[in-house]
Every structure is written in C-alpha cells, then in structure tokens.
Design a protein that fits this description.
Elements (H helix, E strand, L loop, with lengths): L12 H12 L3 E6 L23 H15 L4 E6 L8 H15 L6 E7 L7 H9 L2 E8 L3 H7 L9 H13 L5 E8 L7 H12 L5 E7 L16 H16 L21 E4 L4 E3 L11 E5 L5 E4 H4 L4 H5 L2 H5 L13 E4 L1
Parallel strand pairs: 1-2, 1-7, 2-3, 3-4, 4-5, 5-6
Antiparallel strand pairs: 7-8, 8-9, 9-10, 10-11
Helix pairs in contact: 2-3, 7-8
C-alpha cells in the first residue's frame, strides 16, 4: 500500500479490510440501472444532458440475461434504479423487477434488495405499494427547501413547480403502511440557508414521527451542469459546520435516529458495482455520465459484459493507496483516460 501523505485520510485497517472484501466479493453484485435517461424535471444544478432515451427491448432482455447468468453464484443482489427519472420508464422497471422476483423465489439463499432515486413527482402511494411488491423498498427523494425556493431550482420540464405534488405524495406515503423507507435528501445552497431552520422543523414535524423516513442534508456542488457558473454553493470549508447545526434541528425531540449516514466508500470504487445505462453502455459513476472515462464497457445481447480493463482500473485506485478521499470519490482523482482494451466476461 502506498505511503500516506499528511493530507490523506485513512480508514482504520479493520474497516478497510472489511470494505475491501465486500467490494471484491464475486457472490455480491450491485447493478445501477438507468431505464431511461430522460427526465420530467430541469433542475438548475443538473449535470445530465438527457441525450439517451428509454431502454429498448433488446437492452431490457440483455439486462435480464445478465442477471440470469449471475444468479446461481450470488448470495447478494442489489439493484438501484436511477435516471433521468426512472418512473418515466415505469414499465421497464416493472418488467425487470418482476423477472428478478420470479428468479429470486427459486433461490432461498439469495438476498435481494432494490432502491430507487426519483424526483418523487410520479411516486404516489399506489405506485409505492406496487414497487414495494416488486422488491423496491428504498426511495431517495430530493427537496430544496420550502415551496418558493424548491420551485426555483427543481423545475419541471414545462417550467412549472414541483413542490406541492411531491410533498403531497410524501404525505400519502406516510399515511399508508407500505413497507418502504424514504430518504429525504435536502439540498443546501447559499440561497436557501436562511429558510432551512424553519423548513427542517416542518419536515421533522410532518415526517420524522414515522421511522420509515430519514433525512440527508447535502450541500449542492458544481458537477458540470450548464448552470454551474450561476450557482452559488456553500464554501467547502463551511459545509461541515453548517450541516452539523442543521442536523441538530432535524434531531430535536425525535426519538429515533432520523439522519441517514452516507457510506464512506463510493459505490464507484467497488468492482462489483456497475452502472448499466439505457443504451447498454457500462459505467461506474452516475455523476460522470458525459465523461468518456466513465464508459468502461458494454452489455452484450447474451447478457455478458465486455469490459475495458484499462478503463476500469482508475476507478479502483483507492484500494491501492488506501486514501479515503479517493475511495469516497474515485472520479475526483482521475488523470488521462486509458486506451480501450476490451475483454468479454460473464
């Protein structure tokens, strides 16, 4: 392992070894599936270009075949639905999920879990119950503060606001008993900070009496979107202190742990975690979609994966250095892209 510099943060050896084993296990697979890369929102800080549409039937079939090829050897299968907005391709989500559930019923030793990152606009209580039946029981939904501020940044494609519909959907979910967990990802910006204490009290009183709901506070970052230059982000040196103070408001008077603890190691650092894009390209990161270095291969019609080994290696550098910052975000440490050297696996 490389010698640490003074600025490198390290995981404790026992934690590092545990994470290393988990990330390299052949009997564990994490698939991040993008059923469509189109979206019904145009969030001001979004980094996606929406150039790729819905998964075509041949890609859907290839995803099913990929899962079938791996199932007999798996102890753990985790599927994350991402986009775009995944519920714009709800039938693709349902089709693949039904296939997994049927297969998993024949394998008592398989631990299958699924989650979805959604803007929440189409996630009403009936849809939640339907998805929960298909094994999708963890949802992440973003809010950008009170309605007047949320609707400035999380704008629908038609230019209209989204807060009232999302908030109403969340209340309907709260009032039903679907076996799901809801992570409210609340974005912090210089603009919405003054309103955050009151808004977080509203969130706490409305949802956090229900143990299914948790909160994650996240400062908005510059991620390469077309509006980056116009977005005033919270200075990095101030983010931790501000977040801690706001977390106290979230927790005040709440009897359960209502804060979500984000993992220290990014999924993109793990070799057994792959992004399958709507057009069949294979990647590692859901943020760097426009970067060619994030394309490490493709999904073949028979369900096998053609992987660019040289392109995969930079995503795993954190395991060599042991540097926590690299493991937490391997994309941040990239140099020049490698030349493709494809090989077929699976």
């Amino acid at each position: 392992m490389e010698k640490a510099t003074d600025t490198q943060a390290k995981l404790p050896v026992s934690v590092f070894q545990k994470e290393l084993v988990a990330g390299f296990r052949n009997d564990s697979l994490h698939l991040i599936l993008l059923p469509t890369e189109r979206c019904n929102f145009r969030c001001t800080y979004c980094y996606e270009d929406f150039s790729v549409g819905r998964m075509k039937p041949e890609i859907v079939l290839a995803v099913k075949r990929l899962i079938d090829r791996r199932l007999d050897d798996l102890h753990s299968l985790s599927v994350s639905w991402f986009g775009g907005e995944p519920l714009l391709a709800g039938h693709v989500v349902e089709d693949i999920s039904e296939h997994i559930v049927r297969a998993a019923e024949q394998l008592s030793s398989l631990d299958y879990v699924a989650d979805m990152t959604t803007n929440g606009y189409l996630l009403d209580d009936c849809r939640v119950e339907q998805l929960a039946f298909l094994g999708i029981r963890h949802f992440q939904i973003s809010l950008d503060g009170p309605e007047v501020l949320h609707d400035r940044s999380r704008v629908r494609a038609n230019g209209k606001g989204s807060f009232q519909k999302i908030w109403g959907n969340l209340i309907k979910i709260r009032d039903r008993s679907a076996p799901v967990d809801i992570l409210l990802r609340i974005h912090l910006t210089l603009e919405n900070l003054p309103s955050m204490p009151e808004f977080l009290m509203q969130v706490r009183e409305t949802f956090l009496g229900d143990s299914r709901f948790k909160v994650l506070l996240r400062p908005v970052e510059h991620l390469g979107g077309p509006n980056d230059a116009r977005i005033e982000i919270i200075p990095r040196e101030s983010q931790a202190g501000i977040t801690r103070e706001l977390e106290k408001i979230v927790l005040h008077g709440v009897t359960t742990n209502a804060l979500f603890e984000a993992p220290e190691i990014c999924y993109a650092s793990r070799p057994n975690s792959l992004v399958i894009r709507a057009d069949g390209r294979v990647g590692k990161c859901t943020v760097a979609l426009a970067d060619t270095r994030n394309t490490i291969g493709k999904l073949l019609p028979d369900g096998s994966l053609q992987i660019d080994k040289a392109g995969l290696i930079p995503w795993l550098h954190g395991w060599t250095s042991g540097d926590l910052a690299t493991l937490a975000c391997p994309y941040s440490s990239f140099s020049q892209p490698a030349q493709p050297t494809f090989r077929t696996v699976g």
